[in-house]
Amino acid sequence: MDSAGYVSLSRQSGLMSEMRTIAQNIANSSTVGYRAESLVFSEYIKASGEESVSMATARSRFIDTSQGVLDKTGGVFDFAIEGDGFFRIETDNGERLTRAGNFALNVDGEMVTTEGYRVLSADAAPIVIPPGEGRIRVSGDGEISTAQGVIGQLGVAEVDPKSLRREGDNLFSSTAAIQPAENPRVAHGFLEKSNANPIEDVSRMIEVQRAYELGKGMMDREHERVTKLIQTIGRSA
Questions:
Q1: What is the pTM of this model?
Q2: Beta-bridge mates of residue 62
Q3: Which of 69, 84, 133, 214 could bridge 146 with an S-S bond, Cβ 3.0-4.6 Å?
Q4: Closest Cα to residue 64, out of 97, 118, 104, 25?
């Protein structure tokens, strides 16, 4: 394949990856605490003698950490973070982060996510609410208490957004150290909606699809040109 073919192929590959990312955002526009994602295109230029070849890649991803709308639910174990930060979650693969605060209690009285992962406190311990404790109260910094006293504080962590890596079950891992938030703000009885904008995403998807079709048309014409050239050379040989 010649340089033009490689350049076109790299562009098409990047556009296809962006299409998948946009589709994921649209599919999760109603997912609690979902963080929209976008693809970052980079240009690589390789010099070869007096000529240079420019190729596009789309290997970097950007996680949008902007605040989503808070929806009042009144749920006893519904929580939302106001501002920066993530809830700390214990999984089989280690500590993970999420903005989805639709929690519940398991049979052992542990606060867990909808997938059954344990929610961690500020000191990285499971949050356990024994049976019969009665109505829980939650302060603005996430401290949970009952009539019998303080049970624990919801673990809210701060990380560099660039270090986030998306995983399944609406969770993130971090390549940087996870630090406790200095001044966490937790809203009890609220859930944060997805910060994805489906209208903008649909509009962007149309643009990407048109760009992909245009690129495909160019590659088809280039393939036809090369094929005709080879046929012409073959007949004249």
A1: 0.80
A2: 38
A3: 133
A4: 25
What does DSSP assign to residue 162? G
Contact 194, 32 (CB under 8 A): yes
Q: Using one digit for the tens of pLDDT, what is the confidence trace for 106-145?
A: 999 999 999 999 999 999 999 999 887 778 899 999 999 9
pLDDT at 80 over 90: yes
- Count CA atoms closer than 13 A to 183's CA, side-chain side: 1
Angle between helix 3-27 and helix 198-236 axes, rounded to 10 deg? 160
**179 phi and psi, to 5 degrees?**
-115, 140
Residue 231 φ/ψ region, left for φ over 0, alpha for ψ in the -120 to 50 degree band, beta for the rest: alpha
Which helix H or strand E contains 44, and what residues bound it? strand 37-48
For the chain, give the mean pLDDT: 86
Higher pLDDT, 217 or 31: 31
Closest CA to 18 of 215, 218, 222: 215
The C-alpha angle with vertex 197 and arms to 189 and 214, in degrees rounded to 5, equals 160
Q: CA-CA-CA-CA torsion for 49, 55, 60, 65, nearest 10 degrees?
A: 120
Condensed to tens digits (0 to 9), the pLDDT of residues 167-178 reads: 989 999 999 888
What tokens appear for 39 in the block? Answer: 């693809």
Report the alpha-carbon distance of residue 99 to residue 184 in Å, rounded: 13
